[in-house]
Specification:
alpha+beta; two-stranded antiparallel ribbon; single chain; 18% helix; 2 domains
Length: 257
């Protein structure tokens, strides 16, 4: 083989190797550049998946623990805090977080479980107004559905508004429903294994509480100060109970059995 033949063969091999590399890559890029043409995959393994509109606006993120977004951005301001869980996040048309799902669980050296799951939907510019929770820690667990009220103003606007407020002023703002969340209703199981339904007024003050367990099933009605004034139910002796209570919690009337 002459030197010219060898050089020609080397050029051919280089050209062949380049073509063998570029053609599959070009085909792959061509496939992904056709957004209206469905592409089917039997299985995908990915650490994070971003669902976006054509203009790049994020609509949903599915991520493992390491790549999960930290903190939240509202009105262009980032509030930084850790979120050490895998899960899914939803985003509104503004590109701001509006709900999500996180989950996790492990068993410690002592054999006790630490686990939980949380699905929530947020008010626009605010925090979660609907939340489905499961939490387990140290042998106790609770699970339930919670409905909250959230202020009209955004989280970042309220942070700026109350950044110089005293603890007393912040506490009053929370009572007035102007800062933070106000729990309005909870339905689920408690750490003591009771079934419960709790309803609150606009200030977050409990007004109705229904509790059922092996000891009793009672329905309590409370006044505007959170004091139980009427109890209806069945006690641990399977006897009906009807109690009228005064403002000090003392029975003022009791229905005859």
């Amino acid at each position: 083989m002459t030197t010219q033949q060898l050089a020609r063969d080397v050029k051919f091999l280089k050209a062949y190797a380049l073509a063998a590399t570029l053609i599959p890559v070009a085909g792959l890029l061509f496939a992904f550049n056709k957004p209206d043409k469905p592409v089917r995959f039997g299985e995908i393994t990915v650490e994070r998946l971003n669902l976006v509109e054509r203009d790049g606006t994020v609509k949903m993120i599915m991520s493992n623990q390491e790549r999960f977004p930290q903190g939240v951005t509202i009105d262009g301001k980032h509030l930084d805090y850790k979120r050490p869980h895998p899960g899914m996040l939803f985003y509104n048309a503004k590109g701001e977080e509006c709900g999500g799902l996180i989950f996790g669980g492990q068993k410690g050296p002592d054999g006790k479980v630490s686990a939980g799951g949380h699905f929530s939907l947020d008010r626009f510019g605010q925090d979660q107004v609907i939340a489905l929770n499961y939490q387990e820690q140290g042998g106790f667990y609770k699970a339930g559905l919670t409905f909250n009220d959230a202020p009209d103003e955004s989280i970042t606007a309220l942070e700026e508004k109350y950044k110089a407020a005293t603890p007393e002023q912040k506490q009053q703002a929370q009572k007035d429903g102007k800062l933070g969340l106000q729990t309005r209703m909870f339905v689920g199981t408690t750490a003591g294994r009771s079934s419960a339904m709790i309803m609150a007024d606009q200030r977050g003050e409990t007004r109705v509480m229904l509790v059922a367990n092996t000891e009793q099933s009672t329905l309590d009605f409370k006044d505007s100060q959170g004091r139980t004034r009427l109890t209806i139910g069945v006690d641990k002796n399977n006897q009906p109970v009807l109690l009228f209570l005064d403002e000090n919690g003392q029975a003022s009337k009791q229905a005859a059995k």
